Amino acid sequence: MSDADLFLHCLRAEVAPATGCTEPIAIAYAAANALTYLEDDTIEAITVRVSPNVMKNTMAVMVPGVGEPGLAVAAAAGAVAGDPDAGLDVIAAITMAQVAAIKQLAHSGRVHTSMAAVADDLYVAVKVTTRAGWAQVEIAGSHTNIYRVEKNGTRLIDQPKPAAHARSAQKAALQQVSLQRIWDFATTVPLAKITFMQAADKLNWALAEAGLTQAYGLGVGRAYSPKHALDAEADLAAQIQAYTTAASDARMGGAALPAMSNSGSGNQGITATIPISVIARAQNVDQEHLLRALTLSHLTALYAHAYLPVLGPFCATDTAAMGAAVGSSYLLALGYAGACKAVRNMAGDAPGMVCDGAGASCALKVGTAVNSMYRAVQLAAQDIVVPATNGLVCADVDETIRGIGHLGTVGMQGVDAAVLNVMLNKQAPRITIKPRS
Q1: Where is each Serine dehydratase-like alpha subunit domain found (predicted)?
Q2: Is 186 part of a structural domain of the chain?
């Protein structure tokens, strides 16, 4: 497969609209699909089992359109209002009339949730029981990858389960490329082939505006955005901070608007997009430069994430912000050499944040990531770069990116279990989760 074919395939597959945090969305998607196998929609019970990472990322984050968090709410939303054919937009069309039914089901005692004894990074099993029988849908490997469906004891779909911690063929292919090849592609590909990237700017900018004008989440974007920060004359750092965190506020606070995700994460998609959108507007760039910068940013984010698990202890807004650093370097005419310096500066600045579960505080982490990003780009513009003798910074930019991946996988083993123990013990003391091997 040529670079162009691989990169276009990855962009179309991994830069996709998603309404709401993608872990509760995976639960809703499983519930909606389970109901399609049942002749009766009178729900008697729903049983939800998930991997530790999915549990961590579902406990506190708002389900879009409902205004409440949790696994039971996500499952009820999928069962009551889910569109099984809509992928990550499964509950994008929840109506006000359906909200009461969702909440009633979620709190009725008929929805039972637990952690599955699995080693998978991403695993969801939802069993829906009605008067007509039961159906169970199992997902693993990626948020919409249904590999098994069982109805009343008969397996209707029975594909091999993805191996725990396995990387997809797509990620394996991305591990064989380089940042130089990504740069060469994005800066020369015929524009008609990447016009679809315009949707990332459109969707994520709408989230930013929602976060700035309405009360979502912690309101981090609004707190960071005194009026001068939204003026065209404000410095770019202030604008990037305000708009990017506001978009995360809206997404994590339950806005019924889709984010353009990256690597299965809306926050990563926001982080890879909004800094580019802000700089493009400030510089009044033409569509070609915007599209090429978005392509650079999202492809670099996908490349860096190829060395990380689909879900894990590393907050991958950091690697998404490395994508934004490359795209910003292009818009600011720093060239490929400047982009490499910016990535290396990020690796020497804040090379890794702990993911402590999806929630309102994600907006703070997004803000940290884009602050590091723009600081790194500003230093690169002055030919200041962290030397390769320091920490995770390597002389070769691709080796630097691989080192970040090593930190996020091997180096942070045990972090997920520690975080989840704290989260679960706030609700049910003396639960202990052991680190996975």
Answers
A1: 159-420
A2: yes
Instruction: List CB contacts of 340: < 8 A, sequence separation 6 or more.
Output: 179, 397
Q: Are residues 412 and 314 in the same domain?
A: yes
pLDDT at 430: 46
> Given 158, 178, 202, which residue is the final one in a domain?
158
Residue 427 lies in a domain: no
Strands (E), 227-316: 258-260
Angle at 227 between CA 221 and CA 233, to 5 degrees: 105
Evaluate if residue 226 carries a pLDDT over 70. no
Residues present in the chain in total: 437
The string of pLDDT tens digits covering residues 284-321 is: 999 999 999 999 999 999 999 999 988 888 889 999 99
The answer to whether residue 40 is domain-embedded is yes
pLDDT at 422: 86
Strand partners, 128: 46, 135
Show the domain range for 253: 169-419
Mean of the per-residue pLDDT values for the chain?
91
Contact 400, 393 (CB under 8 A): yes
In-domain check, residue 114: yes
Q: Residue 262 contacts by C-beta under 8 Å, 6 or more apart in sequence? A: 14, 15, 268, 269, 271, 272, 298, 301, 302, 305, 320, 323
pLDDT one-digit tens code per residue, 77-103? 999 999 999 999 999 989 988 999 999
